[in-house]
Amino acid sequence: MVTGASKLRKQLRETNELLVCPGVYDGLSARIAINLGFKGMYMTGAGTTASRLGMADLGLAHIYDMKTNAEMIANLDPYGPPLIADMDTGYGGPLMVARSVQQYIQAGVAGFHIEDQIQNKRCGHLAGKRVVTMDEYLTRIRAAKLTKDRLRSDIVLIARTDALQQHGYDECIRRLKAARDLGADVGLLEGFTSKEMARRCVQDLAPWPLLLNMVENGAGPVISVDEAREMGFRIMIFSFACITPAYMGITAALERLKKDGVVGLPEGMGPKKLFEVCGLMDSVRVDTEAGGDGFANGV
């Protein structure tokens, strides 16, 4: 079986395609993305923090929360789309970064990004971000690279910088070039303030592959998949593609329940439909083919 990491690395190495990854945050959102045929997925740190902890993305989720969620998502379909996962700051010094990378590898994660914010970090699309020194950032990148090399893993190391707010564009490019020189596979400049800046970044770092984090109503402009492809980005993640519509849908349903006394689900949208999205018929087939009779009378 080809690992998700090997699939992701092969795509980056052998094609020029843009990999579009919806931001999933739990098993159901991941199942929907898989069933709709997306070629990659992204486990969002903001969505993981909101769904598992019920908290804002302020660096409160740690390695256990992130690794556990990533492992579940990555293994829903071992033959399915590769999973890229947020690794925030690496959760500590070099030893902790190394431990985090090893746990992501063991979890089946295909790629991860690690950033230069201080440990007391926040969502990349909030104001007031602060970053560590270049030396400390490169220590994180170096620890991650040494670990994946020691474990002979194909996991894709994505170097992210959040230095734009504090230090400006040129410092971001300087940091990303240094991370690239240490062996990072992909770059990510978080929080572009214009389409022109995004295009310039691709050009300034070419031919190194770059990832674009598209957050609608975030810190920067809306860039479509077609625009990102034309600019030359290689990976595009939509961090809030699932968690925000889930919030909107749940809010509307509960408001209707409060007002009308029913949720008002459409015809056909019952338990069986939801379970089918989550692999019901695969489970039935496994039991039946093994000689079990647990589903002899249907479901």
TrEMBL record:
<protein>
    <submittedName>
        <fullName>Contig An10c0050, genomic contig</fullName>
        <ecNumber>2.7.8.23</ecNumber>
    </submittedName>
</protein>
<dbReference type="GO" id="GO:0008807">
    <property type="term" value="F:carboxyvinyl-carboxyphosphonate phosphorylmutase activity"/>
</dbReference>
<dbReference type="InterPro" id="IPR015813">
    <property type="entry name" value="Pyrv/PenolPyrv_kinase-like_dom"/>
</dbReference>
<dbReference type="InterPro" id="IPR018523">
    <property type="entry name" value="Isocitrate_lyase_ph_CS"/>
</dbReference>
<dbReference type="Pfam" id="PF13714">
    <property type="entry name" value="PEP_mutase"/>
</dbReference>
<keyword id="KW-0808">Transferase</keyword>
<dbReference type="InterPro" id="IPR039556">
    <property type="entry name" value="ICL/PEPM"/>
</dbReference>
<dbReference type="InterPro" id="IPR040442">
    <property type="entry name" value="Pyrv_kinase-like_dom_sf"/>
</dbReference>
<dbReference type="GO" id="GO:0046421">
    <property type="term" value="F:methylisocitrate lyase activity"/>
</dbReference>
<comment type="similarity">
    <text>Belongs to the isocitrate lyase/PEP mutase superfamily.</text>
</comment>
